[in-house]
Amino acid sequence: MENIALIESFSEFKDDKLIDRVTLMAILEDVFRNALKKKYGEDDNFDIIVNPDKGDLEIWRNRIVVADGEVEDSNREISLSQARKIEPDFEVGEDVSEEVKLVDLGRRAILALRQNLISKIHEHDNTNIYKQFKDLEGEIYTAEVHHIRHRAIILLDDEGNEIVLPKDRQIPSDFFRKGENVRGIIESVELKGNKPTIIMSRTAPAFLEKLFEQEIPEVFDGLITIKKVVRVPGEKAKVAVDSYDDRIDPVGACVGMKGSRIHSIVRELGNENIDVINFTNNEQLFITRALSPAKITSIKMDEEARTAEVMLKPEEVSKAIGRGGHNIRLAGQLTGYEIDVYREGVEEDVELKEFTDEIEDWVIAEFSKIGLDTAKAVLEQDVDDLVRRTDLEEETIKDVMAVLRSEFEE
Asked: Using CA atoms, how far apart are residues 90 and 94, in angstroms rounded to an integer?
């Protein structure tokens, strides 16, 4: 009974860790074998008998009987007189099995056993957590805000597992309070030492894809396929969708009546602007759709170099480029083409980058941000309007216009 009592005292915390008794007994055997090696130098002449149903564990040491005074290895040999204390009819050369009580190992050894057992159970627990979340990589997961740090939010799930949501995996507009539930995808799981580190992301394109699966039944059922997702988290996203059923309008099904279906996704992503686009293998048509809402006049493509020159009416250029250049950049990522836009009907125009000797690069970049990348495009603008739309001073804008105007004067 003393073995059972000790084992139960060792395993009193097993229920908190949800470890079944069979696994616990296997860990116990491993721990005891290590203890036997430390005390006796080896453990291969010991039998450890585990009874998981009773929660009992027996240790038996096997030795050979030798004549008194001839014991050379006390771990493997026992003198005849000592053997006959166990059974009076033992003879030299016979095998003796003697039970080792746990208390015989000594108090310090038992304390060490307990610490080793705790360590092994934590290791087993961490391995299970690692496997569990490794299988969940790329899937949506919900956890509660436990602690807010400068560079990350620490989340806890219902089982008390710690999940990290780093600052750079958060949407810029994200703001969470302690106790609030957060959704994201499990982006990666790593074992650092023996402890699993679980990273959540809300900025990964896969998060948006999984939200489509959750919110749109046709995507979940496989009737609509998401071909590719590109994002500027919290700002803009483009999602290419396709359907093998001609009766289904994939864009209409995803967006819903007046945006009803996509609204919850947009809200989850901090009002991220989502363009849903019909995928096509016709690359010219795909580029045209990807640059929506801009209307394209013509396209000149180089399939080998993966470049496309797009001609648009002047009023469409800013739409094609988008705020901060997001629209054209995402269209390029979605289609795999480097896209350049040109104004229709502008024959004798000069790109702003040709004026780097006279205009500083950061000033040119300010104009490019609002879709103005040629001299005439800037000259067509009102000075006050440019002051409002850029971070440039009025004097700087006037100086730039003077430089550009001189280019066209005879």
From this structure: 7
Tokens of 323: 């705020």
Burial environment of residue 384 by CB neighbours within 10 A (0 to 12, 13 to 18, 19 or more): exposed
What ranges make up the beta strands (E) of 235-272?
A: 236-243
**Do 104 and 219 lie in a common domain?**
no
Let me know: does 212 contact 239? Beta carbons within 8 Å.
yes
Domain end call among 156, 173, 203: 203
Domains: count for the chain: 4
* pLDDT digits 0-9 by tens, 60-92: 889 988 898 888 888 888 888 888 888 888 888
Are 307 and 337 in contact by the 8 Å Cβ rule? The answer is yes
Say whether both 109 and 144 belong to one domain. Answer: no
Domain ranges, residue 179: 137-203
- Burial state string for 299-329 with b = 16 or more CB within 10 A and e = fewer than 16: bebeeeeeebebbbeeebbbbbbbeeebbbb
The pTM for the full model equals: 0.63
Residue with tokens 């009737």: 223
CB–CB of 98/63 below 8 Å? yes
Question: Which H or E run includes 369?
Answer: helix 361-369
Mean pLDDT of 98-107: 72
Does 244 share its domain with 333? yes
Query: What is the rounded distance in angstroms from the CA atom of residue 202 to the CA atom of residue 199?
Result: 10
| 255 lies in some domain | yes
